[in-house]
Amino acid sequence: QAQAVVNGGVENAVLDQPANPAAENVVVGENPEIQEEQVDEEEDDNEDEEDAVVEDAADANNGAQDDMNWNALEWDRAAEELTWERMLGLDGSLVFLEHVFWVVSLNTLFILVFAFCPYHIGHFSIVGLGFEEYVQASHFEGLITTIVGYVLLAVTLIVCHGLAALVKFQRSRRLLGVCYIVVKVSLLVVVEIGVFPLICGWWLDICSLEMFDATLKDRELSFQSAPGTTMFLHWLVGMVYVFYFASFILLLREVLRPGVLWFLRNLNDPDFNPVQEMIHLPIYRHLRRFILSVIVFGSIVLLMLWLPIRIIKYVLPNFLPYNVMLYSDAPVSELSLELLLLQVVLPALLEQGHTRQWLKGLVRAWTVTAGYLLDLHSYLLGDQEENENNANQQPNNQHARNNNAIPVVGEGLHAAHQAILQQGGPVGFQPYRRPLKFPLRIFLLIVFMCITLLIASLICLTLPVFAGRWLMSFWTGTAKIHELYTAACGLYVCWLTIRAVTVLVAWMPQGRRVIFQKVKEWSLMIMKTLIVAILLAGVVPLLLGLLFELVIVAPLRVPLDQTPLFYPWQDWALGVLHAKIIAAITLMGPQWWLKTVIEQVYANGIRNIDLHFIIRKLAAPVISVLLLSLCVPYIIASGVVPLLGVTAEMQNLVQRRIYPFLLMVVVLMGILSFQVRQFKRLYEHIKNDKYLVGQRLVNYERKSGKQGTSTTPPQSSQE
C-alpha cells in the first residue's frame, strides 16, 4: 500500500508536466532513492502505529482530562513566586540550596552516564581484546576509549532492542530505541564534524608534502612532539577545505539547472534537517554516504593538488618547494602570518561581492561553453531561456492562450508541489532535452571538468607566487622570503589588476571626459582610504598588539631576570586579529558609542567614506585610549617609582608587572560596577514587590505660552 501511494504521487507529478518523454525519464533517473526511503519510513511508521494504538488512546483520554483541569492562574501564581531573591536565597528560605542540590546532582548524573560509564566500558573492552598498546601509542587514549565505549553501547542497545521487539516488550523497546538514537546521533556528529575534516586535513597534508619539501617522517616527528596541536591544525585545515567546497557547491546551484546536483544535499533548503536524517536513515546509509564523501573529496585533492604539483616539478623544477620553514630565531612569527592569511586575506577576497560575481561569471561561461560543445545546454542550464524567447516571438493571441497554460515544472507553486512530493530529494526540478549518446556526453563533460580544474589549480599555484616573488625581489633582492608574503602580495596584485581591467572596460563606452572624472573621484577615494587604512589597519593594530604583548605575553613568557624583546611586525600581525575579534564582539554586544560609530562606518562603505567622521569619532578616541594605556603605566614605572627611592629590583618588578596589575584593577572595577548595578536593580525589584500598590499613567502636556495656562508636569505616581 505504501508503494502504491508513492507511485501514485510521482505519476500525478509527471502528468502535470508538459508532454516530454525525456523529462519523465529524468524524474525517475535523478531520484533513485526517494521511493525506497519513503517506503522504508512508511513501513516503520505502520509498525509503530500498530504497537501504540492502545497507548495513544489512553494518552488521549488523560490529555483531555488534563486540559479540562488546567488553570492559567496557577501557572501565573507560580511564576510570580519564583523571584530573584527566592532563587538566590536572599529571602531566608532554603529554595536556593535545593536549586544548588539539583544542579550538582544533574551534573554528576550527566558526567556519570555520558563520560564515566562509556569510558570504563571501552577501557575494559580494549584491555580484554589486547589493544591497549595500540591505543596508548595514539596519544589520545581517553578519547578513543570513550568512543569505543559508545560504539559498544550502541551495539548493545541494538541487540536489546531486537530482543525486546521479539518478546513484545513495547515500553522497553521504545526506551531502548530512544537511548540508541541518542548514542547514534552523538557518534554521527563526532564522525561528521570531527573525523571527516581530520581525514581531509591529513590527506591535504600528505598530497602537498612535495610542495614544501617535507616527508612523512617529518610529520610523524611533529605529531610525536605535539600530538594535540598537530591534530588540531589538520582538523582546522580540513574544516576550511570542507567549508569552501560547500560554498562553491552553493554557487554552482545558483548557475546550474535545478536537478543537476540531485546527488548533493541543498544546504539552503528550509526542509533540510541533518539531525532528522541522522535519526531516520540507517547506519549503512550513513556509512555509504561517508565513504562516498571521502572518495569525492580525496579525488578532488588528488586532481587539484597532487597532480599539479607533479606537473610543476616536471615543467618548472626550480619553482618548488615553497619556502615556509618555521625558524625559531626569525624576527617574525610565520604562524601569526598564517592566521592573518586565513582570517584576513582570504575572507577579504572571498567576501567581496565582485570576486564572487567574477567566479560566478566564470562558472556560467564555462557551463555555456561546455553545454554548446557537448550539446548539453538543456541539461546544464535548462530550456527556460529558450522558452522565454519563443514566448516573446509568438503573436498576441497565442500569448493570450498561453496565459491559461500549465506552468513549466520548476516555476511557481508547481515547483513547491513537486518539492513536497519529492521529500528527501532535490528541491526544485526542471525538465530537459536528452540528446543522443547521453552517457558518453556526460563522461566527456566530467573529463572536460577535470581538465579545467587541473588548469585552474596550476594557475592558482603558480601565478600569485610568481608575481609575488617578482615584486618582492625589488625590495629584498635574492633573499628567501616566506611564501605567505609572496602569495598574499601576488594574490592582491592579481585581484587589483583584474578589478582595474573590468572597471576600465565598463567605463570605455562613456567617453574620455567621464573616464577622467571617474579617475579623479577614485584617486581622491583611494587617498582617503589609504589614510584610514594607515590609522585603523596600521596604528591601531600595532598599539593593540604591543599592549597585548606587555599585558599578557611578556609577563607569562619572560622571567624577571631577562629582558623582553618586541617585534613590531609580529605585534602588528597579532593586533590585526585582536582588532577583528574586538570589532566582532563590539558589533554583537549592547549599544554604545563604539558600536554606533563602527556601524556608521560600515554603512557608509568605501565609496561614501567620511574621513573627518572616522578620524574624529573612531580613530582619535581609540588611539588616545591605547596610547594612554601604554604611556601612563610606563611613566609611573619609569618616572614616579624611581623618585620614591626604591631598589633596582623593585623598579624592575614594577616595570614588568604594572601592565597586568592595571589590567586586573580595570577588570575588578568593571566587575564591581556591574555588581553594584545588578544589586541596585535587585533592590528596586524587591522594594516594588513588597510596597508597590499600583502605577498610573499621566499624560504629558507641554506648557503653551499662547494660552498662558500651566499644565501638570509629567509624573508617574507610585503608591
UniProtKB/TrEMBL annotation:
It is a multi-pass membrane protein. It is found in: Membrane. Its EC number is 2.3.2.27. One of its GO terms (cellular component) is endoplasmic reticulum membrane. Its main location: membrane. It is an enzyme of class 2 (transferase). The chain crosses the membrane at residues 100-122, 142-166, 178-204, 232-252, 290-312, 332-350, 442-464, 484-508, 529-552, 572-594, 614-637, 657-676. InterPro entries: MARCHF6-like_C. Residues 1-52 are annotated as: Disordered. One of its GO terms (biological process) is ERAD pathway. It catalyses: S-ubiquitinyl-[E2 ubiquitin-conjugating enzyme]-L-cysteine + [acceptor protein]-L-lysine = [E2 ubiquitin-conjugating enzyme]-L-cysteine + N(6)-ubiquitinyl-[acceptor protein]-L-lysine. Keywords: Membrane, Transferase, Transmembrane, Transmembrane helix, Ubl conjugation pathway. Pathway: Protein modification; protein ubiquitination. GO terms for molecular function: ubiquitin protein ligase activity. Residues 33-52 have a biased composition (Acidic residues). It holds the Pfam family MARCHF6_C. Residues 514-687 form the E3 ubiquitin-protein ligase MARCHF6-like C-terminal domain. PANTHER family: E3 UBIQUITIN-PROTEIN LIGASE MARCHF6, SSM4 PROTEIN. This is RING-type E3 ubiquitin transferase. It comes from Phoenicopterus ruber ruber.
